[in-house]
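User: Fold this one for me? It's Response regulatory domain-containing protein.
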Amino acid sequence: MDGLEATRRIRADFPPDRQPIIVAMTANAMDGDKQNCLAAGMNDYISKPVLPEAVEAVLERWCSAPLPSITIQENLDETVSA
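Assistant: Here's what I get for Response regulatory domain-containing protein.
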């Protein structure tokens, strides 16, 4: 099963008011790939190589609370020192 089919099944299994946000993260970056993902029911699309700015933009678009202003390096530094 690929991501398109998985998305269709998830959409079919959840009631309209309980639909999860589904974001494609794929190496498929040819013309029409994004449209295929959206047509299958995905909410958004990120193509690889994934840039941190792209992930942040998608999360901000779909999350109700704003993301904290923290860089990936700051987060890594905190994790390593913990």
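One thing worth pointing out: The first helix runs from residue 3 to 13.
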